[in-house]
């Protein structure tokens, strides 16, 4: 699967009359989301399940659900304190994944929660464990960001591609594995005498796109892996890239995410000094390198 942060990163309501105030509110939403019970700081484990097995940090034995059902099966006693979809588990219960119409909810006795995620072809599933009292949540201080820079609000051309066009996406933990994503269009613009043609893929339902990009700030003033942007094509054949809303990938908050890395065409040789920079601890140091 491709990690996203779109729920708290999309344009939503904007205030064109006061873009700096608008960006400040966007930053506050990001802070609230980061520290939420299933925000990126709270993720303590992602474990793929291909046979019956225990999962680190939680009770029960977990296994793939029977073929055709999708998701996982958990076997536990009532004393283990696992609750699935509001009911205590005492025996074997099937747990729906995030690809189901109604994904299951999982709660553990220690206050942690769980979600089941599918891989890209829905052939295997993983349990994710979220702990609202995780070490990263306790240590978190802020999301460092550049000040608003209007020059990094770019109007680009949106050029639709032929149906079935894809872009090759790789992830940081398994670079040899290609995860092709639909490529509905190309984003073209020129800046500083350089022509760019960027590739963004759908970020869920609707027209929202996920642009995974890198630039010369990565590993210096910004997180090393790259950053995300979530634009939507305009009705007039353009697309607005507001790099002030560039966000850190989930793996900047927890090593238990496996984030996509920028494809070659989305890597800028210049420094994009706009958007989020790094996740900081309470003492101002980097929470993650």
Description of the molecule:
This protein is mainly beta. The protein has two domains: 41-131; 141-281, no CATH class. The protein has two helices and 21 strands. The strands form six sheets. It has a six-stranded antiparallel beta sheet with strand order 1-10-9-8-5-6, with no helix packed on it. Strands 2-3-4-7 form a four-stranded antiparallel beta sheet, with no helix packed on it. A four-stranded antiparallel beta sheet has the order 16-15-12-20, with no helix packed on it. Strand 8 and strand 9 (113-118) form a beta hairpin.
N- and C-termini, Cα separation? 23 Å
Shape: globular
Counting DSSP E segments of at least 2 residues, the number of strands comes to 21
Characterize the main sheet: 6 strands, antiparallel
Q: What is the radius of gyration?
A: 20 Å
Extract low-pLDDT stretches: none
Question: What is the number of helices?
Answer: 2
* Integer average pLDDT: 94
List the helices and strands and how they pair.
Layout: H1 19-34, E1 43-49, E2 53-55, E3 58-64, E4 72-76, E5 83-84, E6 87-88, E7 91-95, E8 106-107, E9 113-118, E10 125-130, H2 135-139, E11 140-145, E12 153-160, E13 166-167, E14 181-182, E15 185-191, E16 194-199, E17 201-202, E18 209-213, E19 227-229, E20 238-242, E21 276-281
